[in-house]
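User: Can you predict the 3D structure for this chain?
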Amino acid sequence: MNLEGTHVAMITPFNNDNTINEEKYREFIDFLIEGGVDGILAAGTTGESATLTLEEHQKVIDIMVDQANGRVTTIAGAGSNATSEALDLVNYSKDAGADVALVITPYYNKPQQSGLYNHFKLLNDQCDMPIIAYNVPSRTGVDLSVDNIINLAKLDNIVAIKEANPDLNKLAHVFSRLNSENLLDDFTVLSGNDSLTLPMISQGSKGVISVVANIMPNKTSTMVNNALNGNYDEARTLSNELFNLMDVLFIEASPAPTKRALNLMSMDVGGLRMPINEICDENEVILKEILKENNLI
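Assistant: Here is the predicted structure, written as structure tokens:
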């Protein structure tokens, strides 16, 4: 499976009553695909997975697979802090026809490194589906060690990692080990932080699972493709142009700024599920200024 390029951690559009807006979700998927992205992710953090019911979680995966219709890679968010629930979600994702499952490291219960490995090992052994491990210590309270990442790379069904630990020195150790153990051809590292996508690609990453691509899919994809093709001058220019937008999308709890930006762009993606609030007035002023700078409003 080729996971290179730009994959979008999609928002989940809601109706006024906070139910899933299927029509708008399908329109949004088309907007992203027409913008040139290589893949889309349903029910990730940006998709408010934490406040989706199980039935809603399954529904957004079904909509994604159906609407994409083979045009791009489909990634199903399938993580949980209970291994048994993650197992069920990965199996559901396979049956739904998704190409790959994204599984976050278990959060809140803070398992030890052996527990993290055994969590993914069980999914590897019991699910006949490619899996991307998702490491985001700022949200989960645990960080996959370099040794653990290498051990996961040796498992047949763990095909990639979305690395959202911003420590580039750690990443350098990961690539050194992947290279020395001849694992680079079979294991993909994807950036989990938009602002670090370019430096991560220079180290050996093959792309990004992106938030900013919700807003500017074409420019994000162009930046990533230039970097992957070795056109670093052009990629650097585009990354710098996107930086303020990347940054402001995390000025408050995600995905509040992203959804507000899309609504300001007349995309009508609806509100947020509690406990996430709309961004404050002061930050909306900043957001609007950056959207105007990018000719989005």
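The radius of gyration is 18 Å. The CA atoms of residues 54 and 89 lie 9 Å apart.
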